[in-house]
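Notebook, student rotation project (T.W.).
Task set for the rotation: take a protein with a known small-molecule partner, predict the structure of the complex, and write up what can be learned from the model alone. Partner molecule chosen: flavin-adenine dinucleotide. Sequence and SMILES entered below by T.W., checked by me.
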Amino acid sequence: MKYDLAVVGLGAIGAAALFQLSKRGVSVLGIDQFNPPHQYGSSHGESRITRLAVGEGRDYVALAMRSHQIWEEIYSKTGKQIYYPTGGILLDSGVHAWGKHGTKSFLDQTISYANDFKIIHELADSKTIKARFPQFLVEKTSKAYLEKSAGYLLPELAIATQLELAKENGAVILPNTKVKSIQKSPTGIDLDLGEERIEVGKVILTAGGWIKDFLPEETSPSFKICRQVLHWLESEKEAKHWKDSPVFMWGFGSQPEDFLYGFPSLDGETVKMASESFVDCGHPDLLDRTVTEEELLDFWKNKVQGRVHGFSGKFRKSEVCFYTVTQDARFKVDFLDGLDEVLMASACSGHGFKHSAAIGEHLVEKLFGEDLTVTLES
Ligand SMILES: Cc1cc2nc3c(=O)[nH]c(=O)nc-3n(C[C@H](O)[C@H](O)[C@H](O)COP(=O)(O)OP(=O)(O)OC[C@H]3O[C@@H](n4cnc5c(N)ncnc54)[C@H](O)[C@@H]3O)c2cc1C
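Predicted structure of the complex:
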């Protein structure tokens, strides 16, 4: 079998790349070891936060803006709404300096990019926060950044819709098929699928945390696999403010784990919230996917209780997901060791979803050697 191009891994980034490639009139194959969208990688769990003043890096601002445009284009074409601009609030205790995803002063950096890129925003003190958002039990010293264009994305819908569009454009999708190795052949690139081999011209490799299977032994440890737990807490009946709440991110201490983020209630009964963890478990296949009672109690006591209003500590469900974290928390987009025909992307480090649509486009332009719509610093 021969294809001009293949995308290996159809999570957030791969689905976006396949969709963009399928518009080019070339023969394209998308392969995933599971049946995407699925719950085993980094792209599941109902919702992802998006924001334009991306404190993680100046170059990411244009990437987030371009992704919003692509999601709007998809909405006009299909009627599928992936992006919900609920507004977003970034809360800071005003006492502890805190960093996020490789950036030291996250709030300051966010405000500075919002000013530079003329992103509509407001700043608020604790009095204003309490008056407008009683769901957040902030300290007197607290301050906040509010962005209108921030909101949430539906990750499963984003993946499914881009894969459907790719299929409509002629792409072939092979689910439940693991690529065991990628090697140069005399006429192109050979994908080893175990029982069969497929020859393709070029490859976009978007394997998420499984990127480690394709990297040389010395590079692989620089990609950490960090287990994350998402919780859906039952909100009390009188806590009506969660339905129209902005998405929120709250740095309440100096450690990366002193952090809580969450979403408006999507079902009117539960609110999804989570913190972050940066402990390396080594490989996605080694991930512990069970959530213990101790973890629930720890999350309730140390992150939620006394911080947000409207909960009594009842959990409806919890799910495990993982980040693939690079040393500087930046995305890696590069040709795979010695192969000009294989472009890999590791775009997670806990903040990649909001950029995924534009990264898909970026990968295709880079592979074709074209002018880039959005430039990414390496
Ligand atoms: C809990 C959590 C919360 C997050 N919150 C946010 C947020 O609010 N905002 C934000 O912007 N970002 C967020 N992120 C980050 C974002 O979700 C990730 O950056 C993004 O989903 C990564 O997508 P991916 O395509 O790189 O990886 P994945 O979605 O894991 O996709 C990789 C795919 O490759 C396939 N694959 C791997 N190896 C092979 C192989 N050998 N053969 C075939 N297929 C293979 C896998 O099956 C998988 O489908 C969060 C991440 C997590 C885990």
